[in-house]
Amino acid sequence: MKQEQDYIRDIAEIRSMMERSSKFLSLAGWAGILAGIFALAGAYLIYAVFDFNPDRILYTEEKGTLIQVLFTGFVVLLLAVATAIYFSARKAAKLGEKIWNSTSRRLVDEMAVPLVTGGLLILLLIWHGLLGLIAPLTLLFYGLSLYNAGRFTYTEIKVFGILQIILGLINVYFIEYGLLIWAIGFGLLHIIYGIYIHLKYER
């Protein structure tokens, strides 16, 4: 009986080692929670302070306001990325692993193509004044990148990505609710995802 238990324990350890070598498991729940909070704060600032809420695809706005909105979005992105790197590095250190390894490189590669493509497309849309499509396309391309990333990290990331894609498609139809749906996707869903990851994998 004891020998059988030893075999089971050995198999479990081997499986754990294989999973760690093939998947990036240093994503931290707190990073998702804080990213969601940053996104909600940014959406509130854009709506309440800058009075920016495109209700149609072609949306003309004062240049100064648009610059403020884009700067706010950039700050939110910067804070979210910095937070993700910090908490992931801290979690990797606790696990005795390096944050930058072959698995994390594959993860970044899978996310980079849809993110860079989406970013360039959004810049072109801004140039042509099609501001109403910014929110849905950020959700769509972000969702695609998350779905790709699901192969190299927690499988829940794929579900998270699909939800972002669905919200993006809904947002294309309901352009007038673009900022609200964006806040749900990048804000509320990030917080829910972060809490879930924290409770399931980090406690």
Description:
The protein is mainly α. It has one domain (27-197). It has helices at residues 2-22, 29-49, 63-94, 102-127, 134-149, 156-173, 178-202. Helix 5 (134-149) runs antiparallel to helix 6 and helix 6 (156-173) packs antiparallel against helix 7 (178-202). The longest helix has 32 residues, at 63-94. Mean pLDDT is 84; it is low at 10-22.
Helicity, as a percent range: over 70%
Strand content range: under 5%
Radius of gyration: 19 Å
The helix/strand order is HHHHHHH
Average pLDDT rating = 84
By DSSP (H or I, 4+ residues per run), the number of helices equals 7
Shape: globular
Write a compact overview of the structure shown.
With 203 residues, the chain is an all-alpha fold. 78% of the residues lie in helices and 0% in strands.
Reconstruct the topology from this structure:
Layout: H1 2-22, H2 29-49, H3 63-94, H4 102-127, H5 134-149, H6 156-173, H7 178-202
Helix pairs in contact: 2-3, 2-7, 4-5, 5-6, 5-7, 6-7
Which labels suit this protein?
203 residues
